[in-house]
Write a structure and sequence with these properties.
50% of the residues lie in helices and 5% in strands. It is built from 9 helices and 2 strands; from the N terminus they run αβαβααααααα.
Length: 194
């Protein structure tokens, strides 16, 4: 067992014994594991395997992966190797959001970060609903999956464009603003590879 695993498992064991009842480790963008050199992939696989073998049962590791169109979960899990694959107990698949789910997701996301809502703020502040409708339609038109990552990228890009636009006078992001900055907003979203 490596020093890294001993250190991390010691910290996790200490935390679950004193402060926390559960520990969550979240690995995002794990679909990129296939881009790593083989030596690094093996190092990651052995680290996770040893970590799982040396920590308490109340450790939850989440591997977040975005599949390409037509790709299967098993295709991505194969990159994790047998040592990890056989230790996976649950697979959760998130389907693209419906229009109602999209608006509920955006509303919940914005409310999550709103500390003290002002009376003038709408439920989608700092966006006007028509701006969000336009973003939704653009994602659908460009056949970009309506998944949280793509929605977050579009909203983050719209917010960044609004913050950096010295000519912007409105306190909200309007549909016309999104149309004007369309190229910037949608350039950072990964388009599906077919």
């Amino acid at each position: 067992m490596s020093d890294k695993v001993r250190t991390v498992s010691g910290i996790l064991n200490l935390l679950t014994g004193t402060i926390a009842s559960r520990i969550f480790l979240w690995f995002d963008d794990l679909e990129r594991i296939g881009d790593l050199p083989g030596r690094e992939v093996y190092g990651f696989q052995y680290f996770i395997r040893d970590l799982l073998d040396n920590v308490p049962n109340n450790l939850l590791i989440i591997f977040n992966m975005t599949l390409l169109p037509g790709e299967k979960v098993e295709d991505r899990i194969a990159f994790l190797g047998d040592a990890i694959r056989y230790r996976i107990s649950d697979k959760i698949t998130v389907q693209p959001l419906t229009k109602d789910d999209y608006f509920a997701y955006v509303r919940d996301l914005l409310n999550c970060y709103r500390l003290k809502p002002q009376p003038t703020e709408t439920e989608f502040f700092p966006f006007e609903k028509p701006a969000l409708e336009f973003i939704y339609l653009e994602l659908k038109t460009k056949q970009i999956p309506l998944e949280p990552r793509n929605i977050n990228n579009a909203l983050s890009s719209a917010l960044a464009a609004a913050i950096n636009d010295i000519e912007k006078k409105e306190s909200v992001i309007t549909k016309s603003f999104v149309e004007k900055h369309h190229a910037d907003i949608f350039s950072k979203i990964s388009f599906p590879k077919g």
